[in-house]
Amino acid sequence: MPRVVELLMLDAQERHAEDAILWKMSDDAPAQIEKALTFALTAEQQPFRQFWHVADDGGQITGVIHAMMLPVPPIYAGLFGEPGLILPDSFVATDAPSGTLEGLLAAAEDALHEAGARIKLASYVVGEGWRTAFETSGYEPLTLYLSRNGLGDQGMPDGVRKATEDNIRGIVARSAENRQVLFGIDPFWETHPEADARFSAWMTRCLTLRDRDMIVLGPSEDLQGYIIAQPASRMHFPPAHDITGTGVIDDYYHSELANPEAIDHGGEAASALLRAAEAAFANRGIGAAFVVCPAGWASKIELLECAGYETAMVWSIKR
Questions:
Q1: I want to staple 151 with a disulfide (CB 3.0 to 4.6 A). Which of 49, 207, 278, 293 is the partner?
Q2: 107 near 83, Cβ under 8 Å?
Q3: pTM value?
Q4: What's the pLDDT tens digit per position in 184-219?
Q5: Domains, the chain, ranges and CATH?
Q6: Which residues pair with 215 in a beta bridge?
């Protein structure tokens, strides 16, 4: 355990060196790592199945890899069952024997396969070795996590407003368009037959949650777009990092982004929604944001990059 904690601290420090705001270190990072690892290895009731493997070189632990079975979000069909996910809190020591990283990757993939994963996902933040190993093993980029620091510097744009219950129907309608774009980019995002009803129920509940801001643009009878600024979760941030000052934007769509290849009307309205979410984060004291975006959605990536976002993490897929 002490050696694994040491390796995962080195791993977290690499991310911190990449972006000290997004990957802020917790004051008690080693204790948080040990707490999470102990729970993963000993707790009888787990929220999801996870796997840890270490590389042993003559009694010396030289690497560690973390993987899990990823629950399928309720708005997606999940025809291939739960995918397996290799998480970013994986690390190989600089003095590890050649082939250690590849050996760890193979062990994690074998465990996920035995657990029933027909599709495998892999995530990485820093480390050219991980990117190369994933690409060599057949992984291709699926989702980009683009980030920006220094939020709210442009203030709240005109025309945007907080969502109300009257806007739920319009949000669901635009979400259906969003899901069509996603499925067109990659069939991985095949929609569940009951997606609209499930998403409507979730949006209605979100209106009661005080930790997020739901923002819309356009009249209720013809809503043009929506965005939800919510707090970060441990799904994307390993336990060594302090996530209190980080927000995540996943549910974000405007009709100007309907063409995944090119932005419509210059993207001014879609950009206004993005700025509104940033301002909402800033008002909550949040200084960094992650925006989740499919790797094949060129128009959305262009809009985000023009707004100052850069890719901070990549999720790749292997079928």
A1: 278
A2: no
A3: 0.95
A4: 999 999 999 999 999 999 999 999 999 999 999 999
A5: 2-144 (3.40.630.30), 148-313 (3.40.630.30)
A6: 162, 227
